[in-house]
């Protein structure tokens, strides 16, 4: 389906007088920061399949070369090892900014959200590229409004252990809007809710990857606290569709991108048991501080303005992820034997 995706010059071109880099070209040049990570690598697959030229910028902090290795040798694909905290010069039409240490185990003390976003916005400003920020549902903190609409300002602890991530993303949203208002940069903001799927980090401590890996390894699934806290889990291909619809569309956002199906952690464990291993067991562990009790996106805005909604249910998505996890866990075990 290549006909629908022709190159469109930036809307603010007339206002800024900037010449789009890709004038006369049909193919877009797209940067994906964090493109060798979980979400980024699936986005890269879809952009390449659509016919774009894709440059991945990644420092392999949590990403893996294996996630994009199938594009090596493709002249339309380029991988740059680079930390977005440092400036970079490139010429592209669109910037998907995903680079970020995304899990609680990895994100502490890291200024990527602020410095990395600033550099990518500076880049977008200089070259007149459209910039998309992947923000997070964590900007809502431990929400006092349920489900969360984009108009909700959030309930966030500025000095808590999670604040480097959630306040970092809030700052990134602020910078994004400032570059839009002040410098006319074309921006898009996605607030992503919990997403799972193949290529997720095996060991970053998130609940879906923990439960699935534990079930495959025949270990008990670790339920934190009483397991009654809720989350809404989105399959990665739905998210990628949403990100691309947002980038191509006319609306800045922010848009919630998530699956509104809400599950307690105990229910999630039950679905893993049903779809992956009927003999799986659970064990209770102490919960971490500041753990949000409930989270569920209100996606009416994305539905009406982006014509997007998720299609894959948890029961459909989990087995697809499990197939990839089984392979990787098997390879790991074989590696240990060597
Ligand atoms: P991930 O850890 O798999 O991907 C992040 C990528 O960024 C990795 O490849 C990592 O190596 C790279 N990276 C980190 N710091 C970098 C730096 N300083 N310079 C260059 N590259 C760097 O995580 P993901 O789940 O794919 O998340 C992608 C984006 O989506 C993140 O911005 C994250 O905050 C956002 N998000 C994800 C979820 C989710 O559930 N997966 C939810 C909300 C928001
Ligand atoms: N930047 C970058 N690549 C570019 C343009 C800018 O990495 O092509 C970085 C730049 O080094 C700076 C940040 O983006 O740290 C913000 O740039 P901007 O021009 O907005 O701010 P200034 O440099 O004027 O403070
Ligand atoms: N959680 C759990 N067992 C685990 C890992 C996480 O019960 O092994 C819980 C955690 O306490 C939280 C929920 O699962 O309530 C989602 O955690 P995750 O880190 O995946 O995402 P986030 O808290 O960022 O939404």
From TrEMBL:
* GO molecular function, a single term: NAD+ binding
Q: Which GO terms describe its biological process?
A: D-xylose metabolic process
Is Lyase included in the keywords of this UniProt record? yes
Chain positions covered by the region annotation Disordered? 282-302
What is the required cofactor set for this protein?
Answer: NAD(+)
Its pathway is:
Nucleotide-sugar biosynthesis; UDP-alpha-D-xylose biosynthesis; UDP-alpha-D-xylose from UDP-alpha-D-glucuronate: step 1/1
Per the record, what is one GO cellular component? Golgi cisterna membrane
Q: Where in the cell is it found?
A: Golgi apparatus, Golgi stack membrane
Q: Please list the residue ranges that the record marks as compositionally biased, kind Basic and acidic residues.
A: 283-301
Coiled-coil stretches are: none
Q: Where is the NAD(P)-binding domain?
A: 32-321
EC no. given is: 4.1.1.35
Q: Tell whether Lyase is among the UniProt keywords.
A: yes
Q: How does it sit in the membrane?
A: Single-pass type II membrane protein
Alphabetically ordered keywords of this record: Decarboxylase, Golgi apparatus, Lyase, Membrane, NAD, Transmembrane, Transmembrane helix
Stated role: Catalyzes the NAD-dependent decarboxylation of UDP-glucuronic acid to UDP-xylose. Necessary for the biosynthesis of the core tetrasaccharide in glycosaminoglycan biosynthesis.
Name the family the entry cites.
Belongs to the NAD(P)-dependent epimerase/dehydratase family. UDP-glucuronic acid decarboxylase subfamily.
According to UniProt, the name of this protein is UDP-glucuronate decarboxylase
From what organism does this protein derive? Centaurea solstitialis (yellow star-thistle)
């Amino acid at each position: 389906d290549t006909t629908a995706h022709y190159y469109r010059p930036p809307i603010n071109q007339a206002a800024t007088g900037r010449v789009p880099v890709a004038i006369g070209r049909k193919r877009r040049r797209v940067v994906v920061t964090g493109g060798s990570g979980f979400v980024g690598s699936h986005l890269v697959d879809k952009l390449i399949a659509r016919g774009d030229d894709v440059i991945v910028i990644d420092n392999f902090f949590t990403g893996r070369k294996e996630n994009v290795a199938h594009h090596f040798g493709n002249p339309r694909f380029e991988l740059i090892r680079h930390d977005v905290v440092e400036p970079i010069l490139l010429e592209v039409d669109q910037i998907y900014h995903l680079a970020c240490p995304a899990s609680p185990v990895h994100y502490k003390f890291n200024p990527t959200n602020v410095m990395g976003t600033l550099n990518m916005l500076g880049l977008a400003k200089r070259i007149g590229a459209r910039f998309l920020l992947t923000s997070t549902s964590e900007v809502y903190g431990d929400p006092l409004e349920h489900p969360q609409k984009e108009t909700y300002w959030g309930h966030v602890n500025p000095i808590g252990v999670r604040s480097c991530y959630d306040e970092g993303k809030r700052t990134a949203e602020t910078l994004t809007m400032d570059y839009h208002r002040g410098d006319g940069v074309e921006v898009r903001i996605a607030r992503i809710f919990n997403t799972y799927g193949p290529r997720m980090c095996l060991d970053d401590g998130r609940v879906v990857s923990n439960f699935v890996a534990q079930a495959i390894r025949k270990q008990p699934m670790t339920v934190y606290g009483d397991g009654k806290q809720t989350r809404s889990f989105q399959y990665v291909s739905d998210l990628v569709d949403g990100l691309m619809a947002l980038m191509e569309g006319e609306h800045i956002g922010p848009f919630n991108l998530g699956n509104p199906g809400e599950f307690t952690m105990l229910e999630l464990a039950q679905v893993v048991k049903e779809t992956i291993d009927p003999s799986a067991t659970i064990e209770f562990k102490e919960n971490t501080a500041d753990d949000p009790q409930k989270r569920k996106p209100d996606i009416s805005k994305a539905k009406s303005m982006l014509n997007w909604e998720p299609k894959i249910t948890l029961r459909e998505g989990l087995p697809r992820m499990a197939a990839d996890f089984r392979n990787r866990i098997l390879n790991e075990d074989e590696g240990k034997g060597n």
